[in-house]
Specification:
The chain is α+β, with helices and mostly antiparallel strands and 139 residues long. The chain has helices at 3-8, 11-14, 28-38, 57-65, 76-79, 93-103, 122-136, and strands at residues 22-23, 42-47, 50-56, 81-82, 107-112, 115-121. The protein has a 4-stranded mixed sheet. It has a two-stranded antiparallel sheet with strand order 5-6.
């Protein structure tokens, strides 16, 4: 793999820009519907437009369903992960990948000027690395 190409890539080059944000006042059922509708597993949580957390299907399963809580009443703010780790679109892919590995996370909200502008996932890293490997072998 061309290390120069991998090391020079920025999060902003690879991130998903069509981000589905979840409002902190939504219910667990709302999150479940969004997971099915969008076929994605994690969402930045906002309150009055500001990022305050992240919520995943795992959060829903372990903090709501497994405890027998009423998913029509439990609000996202009650089971989200608060104060998520974030990155900038200008951060290197390598920096973001190291953060994900260090903290065992699969997605990082990408923030610029206090606004969520994207989401960067371990899948983005994997696809990019495979593309670089493929092009480096003369395919």
């Amino acid at each position: 793999m061309s290390e120069d190409r991998f090391l020079s890539a920025k999060v902003g080059d690879l991130m998903t820009t069509k981000v589905v944000n979840v409002d902190a006042s939504m219910t667990a059922n709302d999150v479940a519907r969004l997971i099915v509708e969008h076929k994605i597993e994690g969402f930045p949580v906002t309150e009055k437009g500001k990022l305050i957390g992240i919520v995943t299907g795992w959060d829903l399963l372990t903090k709501v369903v497994s405890k027998g809580l009423n998913s029509n009443k439990v609000k996202v703010k009650e089971f989200m992960t608060p104060s998520p780790i974030t990155c900038s679109p200008d951060d290197s892919v390598l920096e973001a990948a190291k953060i994900m590995a260090k903290y065992g996370i699969k997605r990082i909200p990408v923030v610029k000027n206090d606004e969520v502008v994207g989401i960067f996932t371990s899948y983005d890293v994997t696809v990019y690395r495979r593309l670089i490997d493929y092009t480096d072998f003369g395919h």
